[in-house]
Amino acid sequence: NDHRPPHFHAKRLGKWEYKVNFAEGTMRKKWEEEKMSSQDRNVILKMAKLHQGTLLEEWEKVVR
Questions:
Q1: What is the pLDDT of residues 26-54, one digit of tens each?
Q2: What is the pTM for the complete model shown?
Q3: 14 CB contacts (<8 Å, ≥6 apart)?
Q4: Pick from 16, 14, 41, 44: which is nearest to 31 by CA?
Q5: Upper half-sphere CA count for residue 33 (Cβ side, 13 Å)
Protein backbone atom coordinates (compact mmCIF):
# COMPACT_ATOMS: atom_id res chain seq x y z
CA ASN A 1 0.00 0.00 0.00
CA ASP A 2 2.53 2.58 -1.13
CA HIS A 3 2.10 5.93 -2.83
CA ARG A 4 3.58 7.80 -5.74
CA PRO A 5 6.07 9.07 -6.75
CA PRO A 6 8.23 5.95 -7.07
CA HIS A 7 10.71 6.04 -4.21
CA PHE A 8 12.63 4.12 -1.58
CA HIS A 9 13.87 5.05 1.86
CA ALA A 10 17.58 5.30 2.58
CA LYS A 11 18.38 4.97 6.29
CA ARG A 12 21.38 5.07 8.57
CA LEU A 13 20.09 3.65 11.85
CA GLY A 14 19.80 6.33 14.52
CA LYS A 15 21.29 8.99 12.24
CA TRP A 16 19.00 9.84 9.31
CA GLU A 17 16.35 8.74 6.86
CA TYR A 18 15.74 10.15 3.39
CA LYS A 19 13.03 9.45 0.83
CA VAL A 20 14.74 8.92 -2.54
CA ASN A 21 12.67 9.63 -5.66
CA PHE A 22 14.66 7.46 -8.04
CA ALA A 23 12.65 8.48 -11.11
CA GLU A 24 13.78 12.10 -10.68
CA GLY A 25 17.08 11.53 -8.86
CA THR A 26 16.08 13.62 -5.86
CA MET A 27 16.12 13.11 -2.10
CA ARG A 28 14.00 14.56 0.69
CA LYS A 29 14.90 14.38 4.35
CA LYS A 30 12.39 12.56 6.57
CA TRP A 31 14.43 13.02 9.75
CA GLU A 32 18.01 13.61 10.71
CA GLU A 33 19.88 13.35 14.03
CA GLU A 34 23.22 13.63 12.31
CA LYS A 35 23.89 15.30 8.96
CA MET A 36 24.22 12.96 6.00
CA SER A 37 27.69 13.07 4.49
CA SER A 38 28.09 14.19 0.90
CA GLN A 39 29.75 10.83 0.23
CA ASP A 40 26.63 8.95 1.43
CA ARG A 41 24.41 11.24 -0.62
CA ASN A 42 26.50 10.75 -3.77
CA VAL A 43 26.57 6.95 -3.39
CA ILE A 44 22.79 6.75 -2.86
CA LEU A 45 22.00 8.93 -5.88
CA LYS A 46 24.58 7.14 -8.05
CA MET A 47 23.16 3.71 -7.18
CA ALA A 48 19.57 4.94 -7.70
CA LYS A 49 20.48 6.21 -11.17
CA LEU A 50 22.45 3.06 -12.04
CA HIS A 51 19.56 0.77 -11.00
CA GLN A 52 16.66 3.04 -11.98
CA GLY A 53 15.14 0.56 -14.46
CA THR A 54 15.14 -2.33 -12.00
CA LEU A 55 13.82 -0.13 -9.18
CA LEU A 56 10.96 1.05 -11.37
CA GLU A 57 10.06 -2.51 -12.39
CA GLU A 58 9.98 -3.59 -8.74
CA TRP A 59 7.98 -0.50 -7.79
CA GLU A 60 5.34 -1.24 -10.43
CA LYS A 61 5.01 -4.85 -9.19
CA VAL A 62 4.43 -3.70 -5.61
CA VAL A 63 2.07 -0.81 -6.38
CA ARG A 64 -0.18 -2.80 -8.73
A1: 999 999 999 999 999 999 999 999 999 99
A2: 0.87
A3: 33
A4: 16
A5: 6
